[in-house]
Design brief:
The complex is a heterotetramer, with two copies of chain A (about 80 residues) and two copies of chain B (about 150 residues). Chain A has two helices and five strands, in the order E-H-E-H-E-E-E. With about 80 residues, chain A is an alpha+beta fold. Helices cover about 30% and strands about 35% of the residues of chain B. Chain B is elongated. In chain B, strands 1, 2, 3, 4, 5, 6, 7 and 8 form an eight-stranded mixed sheet that branches. In chain B, helix 2 packs antiparallel against helix 3. In chain B, strand 3 and strand 4 form a beta hairpin. Classes of the chains: A alpha+beta (about 80), B alpha+beta (about 150). Chains in contact: A-B, B-C, C-D. Chains B and C meet through helix 1, strand 2 and helix 3 of B and helix 1, strand 2 and helix 3 of C.
Chain lengths: ~80, ~150, ~150, ~80
């Protein structure tokens, strides 16, 4: 399946883009992250959470094909 | 007289003192209100390694953020007996000394506004995907992290 | 950058939203501030025995009240790390929907402003000799008592 | 000695004046109140505190000759 991934803040600095679509044949969030870690090696040193369909998810959560987002620490307010 | 319709939370740039004054004025027809409590977040000119923060540039995962603001709104009205509640957060550049967050709660009685306001601010800090790029006077930057 | 000089606390009549907005604006040069918290007391149009409160007329034992406000100020600065603190209270007639109390605290960080503001408001309610005559629409009245 | 007594709020409604000076030859606040209770019989039904020199005092406090005030319940804010 094709999934859209959004990047924010310092993560977007690492990826040099704010959004991209990748081809994905696995099942879990952790597998998406493996792909991203090999594409952007600097990601390993960064602290972020993953949201799917605008809710935070875990490494073992199944990918549903909807929008993912890599969110660095929040700084609102 | 609750006021639960979704609001646009994000505003481009700083939140002006005039806007805050006008928001207060709009509540003077609501004569069941006895107490208002307002939180304002202001950008600090923190000095880090000898350089002062000149501004913060805010970005957000806007769809998720608006969803989270809406959930915080619902949870707050469920927990506390409020007459009104308003939240505004800046996006884009907010200079040191300017206001980036405005949370406004009103109730017939005072006890509830203190509890509700702190609850809302802590929920926003913890759960809303907003990101802040602290821009120094020399145009270098670092990323802000809430504590 | 504490701001401990005694202030005139009482203002004749209601406290306007413009005045509050201007007070906020004055703090935008103080770039060590990260959080403001504002409490506003507003006169409620309570209905008692079928008659609505139209206004409250405030009087005070002014010398003692200013002394108490000053003691609350000192105690608050001792207990909490605040950058600024301002208190204004109305005297005379304040109509339903208008603002009679404005308490404004500012600090580098947010946690302290929540605690300090609630402390100040509770101290004012308990210890400052201010009296309120609730005037009904038909010009009858009763005396307000803080709870 | 002569002492000045101030009245506020609903107490001033009972006394029909905001301030008066009385001649006093006793020692304690309670004795001042006896004089006032006999002058204003309705005072007995009212709830108030007494301040001397702008500090709240007790019935057993000695009168120092400075300003007294009868304060009904506070209603600030």
């Amino acid at each position: 399946m094709r999934i859209t991934i959004k990047y924010f803040g310092l993560i977007a600095e690492v990826t040099q883009c704010e959004e991209e679509t990748i081809q994905f044949s696995g099942h879990l969030i952790s597998e998406v992250l493996e792909i991203l870690h090999s594409k952007y090696t600097e990601l390993k040193n960064k602290n972020f959470q993953v949201a799917q369909n605008q809710e935070l998810v875990f490494l073992e959560t199944r990918v549903t094909g909807q929008e993912l987002a890599l969110l660095p620490p929040f700084a609102g307010g | 007289m609750t006021d639960k319709k979704p609001k646009s939370v994000f505003k481009q740039g700083a939140i002006s003192s005039e806007f805050i004054g006008e928001s207060i004025a709009k509540h003077q027809t609501k004569t069941s209100i006895g107490a208002h409590n307002i939180f304002l977040g202001q950008v600090r000119a923190d000095v880090i390694d000898g350089k002062a923060v000149a501004a913060i540039e805010y970005t957000a995962y806007e769809d998720m953020a608006n969803q989270k603001f809406s959930e915080i709104r619902e949870a707050t009205f469920d927990k506390f007996e409020l007459t009104c509640m308003h939240i505004y957060h800046s996006l884009g550049i907010v200079k040191a000394g300017e206001i980036c967050l405005f949370v406004f709660v009103s109730s017939p009685r005072r006890k509830v506004v203190f509890e509700a306001l702190e609850y809302i601010v802590e929920e926003i800090k913890a759960h809303v995907p907003v990101f802040g790029k602290e821009i120094f006077e020399d145009d270098s930057h670092q990323w802000k992290v809430n504590n």
